[in-house]
Amino acid sequence: MNYRHAFHAGNFGDVLKHAVLALALARLAAKPAPFFYLDTHAGAARYDLAGSEALRTGEAQDGILRLLAERDTPPGLRPYLGVVRTLNAGEAQCVRYPGSPWIARKMTRPNDRLLLCEMHSEALRDLRRATAGDRRIEVRQADGWGALKSDLPPPERRGLVLVDPPFEAKDEYERLARGLRHAYRRFATGVLVGWYPIKTRGPVDALHAAVVAAGIRRVLVAELLVRAPAADDDPAARLAGCGLVVVNPPWTLAESLAATLPWLAARLAQGPGGGYRLDSLAGE
Ligand SMILES: C[S@@+](CC[C@H](N)C(=O)[O-])C[C@H]1O[C@@H](n2cnc3c(N)ncnc32)[C@H](O)[C@@H]1O
Questions:
Q1: How far, in Å, CA of 30 to CA of 68, rounded?
Q2: Ligand 1 surroundings by CB, under 6 angstroms
Q3: What is the pLDDT of residues 208-248, one digit of tens each?
Q4: Residue having the nearest C-alpha atom to atom 18 of ligand 1
Q5: Separation of alpha carbons 241 and 276, rounded Å
Q6: Do the beta carbons of residue 243 and residue 277 sit within 8 Å?
Q7: Averaged over 90-116, what is the pLDDT?
Q8: How far apart are CA 34 and CA 109, in angstroms?
Q9: Which of 21, 28, 182, 245 is most buried by its number of CB atoms within 10 A?
């Protein structure tokens, strides 16, 4: 297992994932009842954009750093950009980037509960450091796929589950579909969010078909393409975009994304054929 998110922090994939995560958490927090947040693949919580890993790839340059240079940002990005800006308060530029656990930590209330699973020792050490002293948070060195079975449904009966695997293994799309199915069986009313990369359409279409075949209902798909995806048989296919499957999208999420995704797609384009998709995968 070699994946280290520090190389990719703040890239366009993080932008879509974290913007949607922040919007969904804001909706959950709008009601007083406490909720549960499960991050199956949590990562390090905070990333140094001036560090050697981030500088080596420069991916944040074509992600969060493009957005922060804009003035006309749509309201749908406010919760996300608010967390990024607060983390960089006092800095002349954006040098720190929040991972999903940090965004969740900042957007939850004193009576909410967070479970963060991470396998990699280095990421785990940073995660523990970033969340130390916060009694609402359990950091667990564990296989996040297992938590979808062992920790759902939560006693709170309200919550958001983020499934954000590294996509290093070939079968990760199938695993994501299986993981969402397990989570849905146990916690059919939860907000379940799964992230996936798009190089070619084939595996993505298969993922969507598997979600529908699993009987999962109320599924929103949000995708961002920075260039056209390659043909399925192209051995040199590179990352063209990313997407999210959102089960039980909170009220107004689709509406906010409809107003946000065109703007994001225009700002984050890297080549011809980019764009976005916002669709309902399976109805009521
Ligand atoms: C894409 S990164 C997570 C990024 C993070 N969710 C965010 O948005 O900031 C995937 C993480 O999963 C960890 N990981 C890989 N396999 C895992 C597993 N089976 N269970 C838990 N964590 C795992 C990796 O070490 C890596 O930190």
A1: 26
A2: 1, 3, 5, 17, 39, 41-43, 99-100, 117-120, 123, 143-145, 164, 166
A3: 999 999 999 999 999 999 999 999 999 999 999 999 999 99
A4: 143
A5: 9
A6: yes
A7: 97
A8: 8
A9: 21
